[in-house]
Amino acid sequence: MRRRIWRGWILCLCACLLLCGAASGTGSTPPDAVSRGAFADALYDAHVAHGGAPVVSEGSSAPFRDVGSWSPYFEALCWAKASGIAGGYAGGAFRPAAPVTRQQATVMLYRYAKTTDLPLEKGSDRDLAGYRDVDTIPTWSREAVQWAVRNGLWFSGSATELQAAENVSWEELAVLTQRLFLGGMPAAALSAAPEGLTMELQQCTTTGAVVVLQNAAEETFSYGADYGLYRQVNGGWYQMNKEMDTIAIAYELAPGESRKLTLSWGELDWGGVLPAGTYCVAQGGLLGEQQVTVSVTFAIK
User: How far apart are CA 26 and CA 162, in angstroms?
Assistant: First the structure.
């Protein structure tokens, strides 16, 4: 059942983003930035798609002084205001056309997670220790930012900067609403393969890929059955399957040999199809005694 819901939600989200994107591309919102109203609307749609009760907004009073029944975000913001997810600004305004920043979006996600008891871990200052702009996080959003980073729901595209005051992109919104219900998606750094070891893509679909490992190096490449699947968001890589602490060696590729690998995303824990985006498959192993990674990128359109 969960797999069918997730697949259906991807189609629903794509339609939602196209409609909301057209609406939010005017006014004070840059074309690639998500408006505050569109973010609340996408979160509400994701909530309903995952079994949450829809709100009955007919006859309701305006949740904010700048969001009435005429607004395309009226229903979503009635829900967000009543649920304690969206609080707005002093004076009763929500500013739905303004771009939503990363820290504003995270506060709404954090409040939603607490309201619905999603099984996500509480964060701490230790989760932010590796970022050099951590001192720019204001008090009102710090707890939410800690939580988001801890649970793999922070997609700045940088391993060293949170960029909390930057606008949320449409790509980022799609990933946030997809991964919120699946435990997040941790950031990852991909290293270049050594000379002579390559991976070539022969075929890729939304449900799997066929790749060829080629070893033109002078040493044997030893690797396991597990591989990494990553998605690119805002220029950064984020791992979509469980990261292995150790490599369980199962196969060997001698110098001069090649081998075809057939990969299926349905075998992963979330067992879904890939929405449009840029992805990478990586295979870790040992080249002689050196631990290495070989990878190939591909796009789903």
Answer: 27
Give me the chain's average pLDDT, please.
Answer: 88
Point out which residues pair with 264 in neighbouring strands.
208
Gap between the Cα atoms of 160 and 106, Å rounded: 18
What are the tens digits of pLDDT across the range 232-284? 999 999 999 876 556 678 899 999 999 999 999 888 877 789 999 999 999 99
Task: Look at residue 266 in the predicted model and tell me its pLDDT.
Answer: 84
> Considering the entire predicted model, what is its pTM?
0.82
Buried residues in 261-298 as b, exposed as e (16+ CB within 10 A) = bebebeeeebebebbebbbbbbbbbbbeeeebbbbbeb
Q: What distance in Å separates the CA atoms of residue 135 and residue 242, rounded to the nearest whole number?
A: 31
Q: Which residue has the tokens 């074309």?
A: 31
Token couple for 53 = 């009760």
What is the distance between the alpha carbons of residues 3 and 6, in angstroms, rounded to a whole number? Answer: 5
Query: Up-side HSE of residue 44: CA atoms within 13 Å toward CB?
Result: 27
Q: What is the dihedral of CA 164, 170, 173, 174, to 10 degrees?
A: -150
Q: Picking from 52-56, 190-194, 243-247, which range would have the lowest pLDDT averaged per residue? A: 243-247
Tokens of 229: 């699947």
Domains delineated in the chain:
2-184 (no CATH), 188-300 (2.60.40)
Instruction: Give residue-wise pLDDT tens across range 164-188.
Output: 999 999 999 999 999 999 889 988 8
